[in-house]
Design brief:
heterodimer; A: about 120 residues; alpha/beta; Rossmann fold; five-stranded parallel beta sheet; 5 helices; 5 strands; about 45% helix; globular; B: about 1250 residues; alpha+beta; six-stranded antiparallel beta sheet; elongated
């Protein structure tokens, strides 16, 4: 758990990004984006982002579409989905295909996320 | 002594300074020591011999060192000197009487040292200081401050001496050092200058030498007078191809040059000329032709210049190899002249260069001489005025030409124009102009163009076009299909004949491979032909099938040949003429089949068939082989017929001769039949009838078709017949009856003995005569002719006739005539047996009278009266008979007469007759039967038959009445009756059938109604279920959306409170503890809400999701969460979950629904307070889930209906009645069972059994 670990959180709800940042900034260097497109920009602008956590349901580009796109450029980053939806076939498939590391459900559980991120960073 | 002061010249520079210092030290020390010696010797002569001798020794040593130093051994000398000084000081300290005196004694040494090292001024200063110190010391000793020393006076005196010595010494020093220094400096300077000069000289020489030697430019120095080379560098040696410098030096220009130079003068003269020139001008550059020792010529540019050295006038020159340049120049010149000549002699056209002026007009910068020929003007004229050329372009082409040129100019692309030009003689020629404009260095546009006269090729092109057109017309109108293909067989062209032959449009075939249309079995054949035509220049004909557009195959005979490229002999195309030969093919096929058929006939024929060609059997069928009893036809084929025959034929003729004769006859007549004897393989002779048919007109190839028929049997029969004839002849001859045989013309053939007896004629008198002419009254002739005619028709007849005997007596004969029929069924004549009935005739005529009477009676009888025999020959019938039946007397005995009894009634008649024959009855009852008359009309007869005997034969007499009319009415009536009956029957049947049908329809309808009712019910049920499941599905989608929408705000709350919590943890406040419970409350709220949403999510899992492993306990828990609000404060839940593995493979959402329904029902059955026990158990891979409530229970009659859809015990509108039906379906879908046990008022237990998924 290093404070300089850069983590990108993508969610179209500003409250979600605000709260996520408030809770995780003690542990990570949290960067937030309001959409997949902004997420891509943030990835291009910031080097060494190791973790990307994205909401599933977003306008224009959903979480998996964004991650699929991002993975093309940044294959070494570990990706996660944090969604208010129940796990879907699409997400299961993404986990099976190693597109994402795992999936979290809203409301988020800090411990769960931290443990998974630490696992991913090993 | 002063030699010592001279420095050795051989000293090395670095040692020099050292030597000087040492020299100074030694000299000084020696001087001091010598003075001390003198002083001591003067002052203390009595007790200082020790000192004097010591100092003397010291002096000597120093002198030695000085000498050593001068020899150059400075280091040794200096070492020894230092040792000497130290040992002296030690000596003084030990023997000089104390440190102070020693110190004083050291003073001069110190002074000397300082002086030597730092110069004389320092020496003086040091001397003064030490003198003061020494004086001070002495004074201190004198004043008693320092303890007295015996040395004082000595010291004092010594100090004085010392002082004076110092002065002297210093002076000496000054002089010595100064003089030495100046001498030394001078020497040193000289030395330096000389060294430098030497170095410089050396360097300069080397450099020059190096520059000269290493230069890659050949440099040679030559004497002006002798013309000889006196120096050269390596480059020069190399370029001349000499091996050493020695070889080069001494050579003159003539030695390295060919005899003559470029202008033809000799090299020697030319060299002289250049030398003189350089002497006057200083330097010149010229080209020179050289020759190497191996004879190779090379060109050089020579840079020759004059210089003076050693008072000699010399010359040096450098060489530059310009052979390549010369060569290039030469080839350039040659090519230029060649091009010029080509361009000027370019007969077929003109070469030119055009420059486009800024105003767009053209100027010719070059034109080949052919312009004179092509345009009738000189190049100069054309160059002056380009319009002289442009105006010659044909009016119709000029615009086009200029346009093409301008366009090419703009894009610098190539233009190619064909235009008409007017010749000087006024005729028009075709020229082609080709060029690519380019930008010149000056920036204008120009092009080098060629005008090429193409009139001829244009003409050829036209002719070609015409011929092509002709060919095309020919191809287009040809009935045969003409096509052109690539070497691979792709259609390039196909004539329109393809429409008629193949049904395709030409465009449907062009671009396709010919092979696409070919019958699969013919592909290989066609490919073989194609590759042959491509490889070998032949014309090939191939027959194959091509698919017509309608799918049928057409037979093609294609003639193809390839067109080769003249240059590389590669195939350009294949030209093919195809003809539809389907008709011919079919005919061929038919022919083949017919041939096969005939061959079959030939082979299978029972008659022996053979084919003779030129007198020999060439083929035969199986029957022939069998007849001759050979094993195979090969055993006797190709032999002459006589070989298969006995030597002689039955008529005594030789077989060979006769066979040839027979064959000749066959050829002459076309066909010939005869009898022959052949011989079998086993030697047996076999008579055959041979039929030869000549089937060839070709005299060189006589083919005769042969048929053998075995006539062994016939032969046998013939001979048997002959025998029997003999026998019969004899019999007839001796018969008691008169026998007579006549031929068809009634010519008498044979009479027996009785005949001659009766009629008086001898056989010779009567045989051969016409019978009726000789023997009958002409009145009776007709009778006999008639009878004979009948016999020709093979009729046996009996008649009475009157013969006239030779003596004129009339004799009545009853003649029984029978035809004589030969084997072939031909009537040859007749044989008559005649009985003399003259007497009987007399009786007969008496009878006749009485008969006449009866006859009349009978004839007039209205009913039929007839008599017939067993064979149904009518022996007698009255006129009525013929009237009714139409049977005339001539047909009485004709068994085949048209009129007959109806076959259906035959039996009745037959049995009646049989009864009569058997004498059971003498007369039948009235029999009614049908009879068809000769006109085909049907009669009903009614009659009786009675048996009677006529001439001893049984005959039948029938009296028959035609009851047709009556019968008709009867029949009609009968018919009506029958019809009526049938109608009634039909009606009844119809009615019955209709009835039956109706009843079956009724049944069916009833069934259908029942079915409809059930399906209606089902439909209703399904519809309800559908609505419900639709509702559930939309609820699923809805709840998933709601879950998401709730989860997000939950996330806000959860995250927010987490942040607040952290904030308080990091920034403790006094009252922070008070907030904790509230934070907890929020957390609990969030987690509970999240749990509900989660359950809802699980519950609403879509039905179409795949089956997964479901945790049944988690599902139950989820259901309880969902029902929390209903259960709270009302129902106590007791869970007893098994710990065994109990995963169910199924649809999570559906299982949720099922369990939720049951728990919900259980909850609803409890009115106030109660418990629900939920228990799971695993027995043998089966999960048993029992849910027991303490509710109101279910009545017995309702217990049976609970799974029925829409059954509900709830108030209308409160329950759908579908819950348990759906549950039941879900459990069954998961291969499980569900049952209820209930006691009204006590509670209900639902037991669900589900199979456990063994695979995890």
């Amino acid at each position: 758990m290093a404070k300089d670990t850069k983590l990108l959180y993508v969610d179209d709800e500003p409250i979600n990004t605000m709260i996520f940042e408030a809770n995780f900034k003690r542990n990570y260097h949290v960067i937030t984006a309001k959409s997949g497109i902004e997420g891509m920009e943030k990835l291009h602008d910031n080097s060494n982002i190791l973790i990307v956590i994205s909401d599933m349901k977003m306008p224009e580009m959903n979480g998996l579409q964004f991650i699929t796109q991002a993975k093309k450029y940044y294959p070494d980053i570990q990706y996660f989905i944090l969604s208010g939806y129940e796990i879907t076939e699409e997400i299961l498939e993404a986990i099976d295909n190693k597109l994402i590391f795992t999936y979290f459900r809203k409301p988020f559980n800090m411990k769960e996320i931290e443990t998974a991120v630490e696992d991913a960073l090993k | 002594m002063f030699d010592l002061f001279k420095l050795p010249t051989l000293l090395k520079k670095e040692n020099l300074a050292k030597a000087q210092i040492l020299y100074k030290l030694l000299a000084g020390t020696m001087a001091i020591a010598t003075i001390l010696l003198l002083l001591l010797w003067i002052a203390l002569p009595q007790n200082s011999m020790r000192w004097i001798s010591s100092i003397f020794v010291f002096d000597l040593i120093c002198l030695g060192l000085l000498f050593l130093n001068r020899k150059g051994n400075t280091s040794i000398a200096s070492g020894l000197f230092i040792s000497l000084c130290i040992s002296t000081i030690v000596f003084l300290a030990l023997f000089g009487g104390g440190i102070r005196s020693a110190t004083i004694q050291i003073i001069p040494v110190v002074v000397l040292m300082a002086g030597l090292v730092q110069g004389w001024k320092a020496g003086l200063f040091t001397g003064l200081v030490t003198a003061v110190i020494g004086l001070g010391l002495v004074l201190l000793e004198l004043w008693g401050i320092l303890p007295a020393n015996s040395v004082v006076h000595n010291s004092f005196s010594l100090w004085l001496i010392s002082l004076s010595c110092i002065a002297l010494l210093t002076l000496l020093q000054f002089y010595a050092i100064e003089s030495l220094n100046s001498a030394f400096k001078k020497t040193q300077e000289e030395l330096f200058l000389r060294t430098k000069a030497e170095e410089e000289l050396r360097k300069n020489n080397v450099f020059r030498k190096m520059v000269f030697e290493s230069s890659r430019i050949p440099i040679v120095v030559m004497d002006t007078k002798t013309f000889q080379f006196i120096e050269c560098n390596q480059a020069a040696i190399d370029i001349y191809c000499f091996s050493t410098k020695l070889e080069t030096i001494g050579k003159s220009p003539a030695d390295i040059s060919p005899p003559l130079q470029y202008d033809g003068t000799t090299s020697e003269e030319k060299a002289k000329y250049y030398v003189e020139k350089v002497l006057s001008q200083g330097e010149i550059v010229f080209e020179w032709l050289h020759q190497r020792p191996n004879g190779e010529l090379w060109d050089a540019e020579v840079h020759l210049m004059r210089f003076d050295a050693d008072n000699r006038q010399l010359m040096q020159f450098t060489l530059l190899d310009i052979t390549e340049r010369k060569k290039a120049e030469k080839s350039l010149k040659e090519s230029e002249s060649r091009i010029k000549s080509i361009s000027n002699n370019f007969a077929a056209g003109m070469i030119y260069q055009v420059i486009i002026n800024p105003d767009g007009s053209r100027t010719y910068s070059y034109l080949s001489d052919s312009v004179k020929k092509l345009y009738g003007i000189s190049p100069e004229e054309a160059m002056a005025n380009s319009s002289l050329i442009y105006n010659r372009v044909h009016k119709e082409d000029i615009e086009f030409l200029l346009k093409a040129e301008n366009e090419a100019t703009k894009s610098f692309s190539t233009f190619k124009v064909e235009a008409r030009i007017i010749n000087p003689d006024g005729e028009i020629r075709w020229s082609s102009f080709v060029s690519t404009p380019k930008l010149t260095n000056e920036g204008s546009v120009c092009w080098d163009g060629i005008e090429f006269i193409i009139t001829d090729s244009k003409r050829i092109e036209e002719a070609l076009k015409e011929s092509e057109e002709r060919f095309r017309l020919l191809a287009e109108n040809s009935v045969d299909m003409i096509s052109r293909h690539t070497a691979e067989g792709i259609y390039l062209y196909v004539s329109p004949a393809c429409r008629g032959i193949l049904g395709y449009e030409p465009k449907e075939m062009i671009g396709h491979s010919a092979f696409e249309f070919v019958h699969p079995t013919d592909l290989a054949k066609l490919e073989e032909s194609r590759s042959m035509v491509v490889e070998v220049p032949v014309t090939d004909v191939v027959t194959f099938r091509v698919r017509h557009k309608n799918g049928n195959y057409i037979w093609f005979e294609s003639t193809s040949h390839s067109i080769k490229d003249k240059n590389n002999s590669e195939t350009i195309e294949i030209q093919v003429t195809s003809r539809n030969i389907t008709e011919r093919k079919l005919a061929e096929e038919a022919l083949r089949i017919s041939e096969e058929k005939f061959r079959g006939l030939f082979e299978k024929s029972g008659d022996a068939l053979l084919i003779i060609e030129n007198g020999k059997f060439i083929d035969c069928n199986h029957a022939a082989v069998e007849m001759l009893q050979y094993k195979s036809k090969e055993e006797f084929l190709y032999s002459h017929p006589s070989k298969l025959s006995p030597k002689m034929q039955p008529d005594g003729k030789d077989s060979l001769e006769k066979a040839d004769e027979m064959m000749e006859l066959a050829v002459r007549n076309g066909t010939h039949r005869f009898e022959w004897e052949h011989i079998k393989n086993n030697g047996e002779i076999i008579p055959v009838e041979v039929l030869l048919t000549s089937i060839s007109n070709d005299p060189t190839k006589i083919i005769i078709h042969t048929v053998w028929r075995d006539i062994t049997e016939r032969k046998y029969a013939e001979s048997a017949l002959k025998e029997s004839e003999e026998k019969y002849r004899y019999l007839m001859q001796n018969m008691n009856e008169v026998v007579m045989m006549v031929d068809n013309d009634d010519r008498v053939q044979f009479v027996n003995k009785k005949f001659t007896d009766k009629l008086g004629y001898t056989p010779d008198e009567i045989i051969g005569k016409i019978g009726y002419e000789k023997l009958l009254d002409p009145v009776d002739r007709e009778i006999i002719i008639e009878a004979n005619k009948k016999r020709i028709d093979k009729e046996i007849s009996q008649y009475e006739i009157c013969f006239i005997a030779k003596n004129g007596r009339k004799i009545d004969f009853l003649v029984s005539g029978a035809p004589i029929i030969d084997n072939e069924g031909k009537t040859l004549g007749s044989i008559g047996t005649m009985t003399d009935i003259t007497e009987r005739k007399l009786i007969e005529s008496a009878l006749k009278e009485s008969e006449e009477r009866y006859r009349k009676l009978v004839e007039a009888f209205p009913d039929i009266i007839m008599v017939y025999d067993k064979e149904r020959n009518v022996l007698f019938a009255n006129e009525t008979f013929e009237k009714i039946t139409g049977i005339s007397p001539k047909d009485y005995n004709n068994a085949n007469r048209n009129a007959s009894i109806h076959p259906n009634d035959m039996k009745v008649i037959d049995s009646a007759i049989q009864d009569l024959i058997d004498s059971k009855i003498s007369q039948t009852d009235l029999i009614e039967y049908r009879f068809t008359d000769v006109w085909g009309k049907l009669h009903w007869f009614s009659g009786r038959i009675a048996k009677l005997y006529m001439n001893g034969q049984i005959a039948f007499q029938a009296v028959i009445r035609d009851i047709t009319e009556k019968k008709k009415i009867d029949v009609e009536l009968e018919k009506y009756r029958n019809k009526l009956e049938i109608l009634v029957k039909e009606r009844t049947e119809e009615l019955a059938a209709a009835n039956e049908e109706l009843s079956s329809i009724n049944d069916e309808l009833y069934d259908q109604r029942e079915e409809l009712q059930t399906s209606l019910n089902k439909l209703y049920e399904t519809q309800k279920q559908l609505i419900h499941s639709e509702k559930m599905a939309s609820l699923g989608i809805l709840s998933a959306g709601i879950a998401h929408e709730i989860n997000n705000p939950l996330n806000f709350i959860h995250g927010g409170i987490l942040a607040i919590e952290n904030y308080f943890n990091e920034n403790p406040r006094e009252n922070a503890q008070l907030i904790n419970p509230y934070i907890n409350a929020i957390n609990v709220g969030v987690s509970r809400a999240s749990e509900i949403v989660n359950s809802l999510n699980h519950y609403s899992r879509r039905d179409d999701l795949p089956q997964v492993n479901c945790n049944i306990h988690a599902i139950i828990d989820n259901c309880l969460v969902m029902l929390r609000s209903q259960l709270k404060n009302k129902v106590e839940i007791n869970k007893q979950f098994t710990e065994k593995y109990c995963s169910i493979f199924g649809n999570e959402g559906k299982l949720h629904q099922a369990i939720l329904n049951i728990i919900s029902n259980a909850e609803q059955s409890i009115e106030n307070k109660g418990t629900i026990e939920i228990e799971t158990e695993v027995i043998k891979n089966q999960l048993t889930l029992s849910i027991t409530d303490t509710g109101c229970g279910i009545s017995k009659e309702n217990l049976q209906k609970i799974f029925d859809p829409f059954f509900t015990s709830k108030d209308p509108g409160k329950g759908t009645g579908l819950g348990l039906a759906i549950t039941y379906n879900i459990i069954h879908e998961h291969l499980g069972t569900i049952e209820f046990e209930s006691q009204q008022g006590k509670g209900t237990k639902a037991i669900i059994k589900l199979p456990i998924n063994k695979i995890e």
